[in-house]
Every structure is written in C-alpha cells, then in structure tokens.
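Appendix B. One record, verbatim.
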Amino acid sequence: MILEDIEIFLLTVQTRNISKTATQLYMAQSSVSHRIAALENELGFCLFMRKRGRRILELTPEGMDFIPIAERWLTLIDETNNLIANKGKIHLSIGSISSINRSFFAPIYSELLDSKDPPITLDIRSSQSAALYTSMEQHEHDIAFIAQLSHHNTIQSFPLFSEPMIMVKKNTAANPGTPIFGDAIDPLELDSSTEIGTHFQSRYLQWRKNSLKRDMPFIVSTNDPTLNMEFLNRDNTWCLVTSLVAMDFASKLPLEIHPVLRNPPERVCYMLTNGAQESKQAAFHILFHLINKRMKELGEKQLISVINYLDES
C-alpha cells in the first residue's frame, strides 16, 4: 500500500467529501478519486458508498473496519521514520493519565532529555487508564502509568506509590507557590453545593456516597483536573484532589490546603509494562532511577507513600 493513499483515505473519512479532501491536499478531485479507487482495488473491497447526487460520502462496513488499520499503519510508518532519524538514540513512548504526567513526571521528563549516555528522545501521551491499557496491548507505548487498575493477560502492573486526598480552596491571603496549610477538616462541614468534582477514580465517588451520604451532583465535574484550577477561582468553591495535584495547583493559584478526615481513599499510581525491550534497557534504567529518586524526595516530604521502589539493575 502507498502511504499517500492511506493519508488520503483518512482525510476523506474526516471530510466525507472528495472536493474538500482535494482542496486541503491541493490536489485535483479526479486525482483524489483515482487514489481512493486504487487503494480499494488493492484491498479488494469498497471503502465508500457511491451514490449519485450525494456530496457526503458514507463508509462501507469494510471502510469502517479499515480505519483503525490505516491509523496503525501511519503510526508504524512514523515510528519507523523516527527509528531511522534517531539512529544512536533511544526512543521511549510513555503514556500516563494527565494528572500524574503533570504533577509527578514533568521534572523526570526534563532529566531524561538531558541524558547523553544514551541520548533519549520521548513521545509523551496523556490518556485515561482504560485507553492506556489498550495502547499498551497494541504496543503503542513502551510503558504507562495509570490509577484505575484492570486485568489484562498481556499487561503487567506494578504499584509505585499512593497519594492522600487533600481539600483545596482559594484564599486571597495566600500567594501562588506559598499556600496556606490548615488543620484537618471534616468534609461534612463543607458546603456540598460548591464542590468541584474530579473523576480520579470510582472509589472516591463511592466513598462520597457511602461515608458522606452525598449523592447530589457537583457544581461542576470534569475528568481533567487541570480544568479545576479555572473553577477554583470562583468564590467559595472547593475540591478534593490528590496531594501532588494540590501542590501543582498551589504553585499557580493562591490556595489554602487541608488534610481530610473520614479516610477518603488514596489514589495509587501503577506502572504498566508489556514485556522487556532489550534495545531500550539503558533508557529504562535511567527512567527507573529518576522515578525512584522522585518518589524518595516526595515521600520524605510526606506528599506520597512509596509502595515499591523499582529495580534499577
């Protein structure tokens, strides 16, 4: 298959219109139609339904099935080109949920890029835990870090550390980078009508319902904890986040921070692997050393509880 034909097909899936595809690629419509027909001829089935008088193209069932194959084909081509371009370097593809990427791994990534022996290049993706399992099974990532544990036969999981839940709210007496630390607070004393919801894990929602007897909706709820920084600027709003996310928020917003009573569930960070890659062991060695160092530093500050250190040998 010709790479250009795959790219034309995927763009046409988005536009559903030969004319729009041709315009975006600076090609003649007849050339686009010819390339799609050539791809269909090579595959042995039609990708789009042709109906006279209709400008919007509809995919055939085979065309729908071919989309993920075409996307993987492009991914493999990109990875091959990266392998050629980065000869002598080790390329790591790392996936993580966004809050752990931002609050735990950001400084680690900077140190990885400073590595000279070996030089390391990175592809960093943020996604939800379930999607990361899928990408690991398809070998789209070399390693991943999640918070929602699941069972997959081909994926190994390894708990690294846990984080307590912390209450944060705006306090104009504080300054970004220097939050005000308060006493432990009973969440039942907080106004539930101004709570910002975070979808870190279902265990928190169960705890909120069972321990606090609260099943009412949040004032706003999001699966992206970084959006909460925007909502925390509203008067009287508050939310429960993990300790590292709380410190990340506090570096940018004037916040007060409180430990939380009634034992809210801690969030555990798990590492996912899909089998050792001998060619990348030197990079993994450096990555594991940096993870251990950061866990030790954060553990000494009592921001996390280390469950397991990684084997650096």
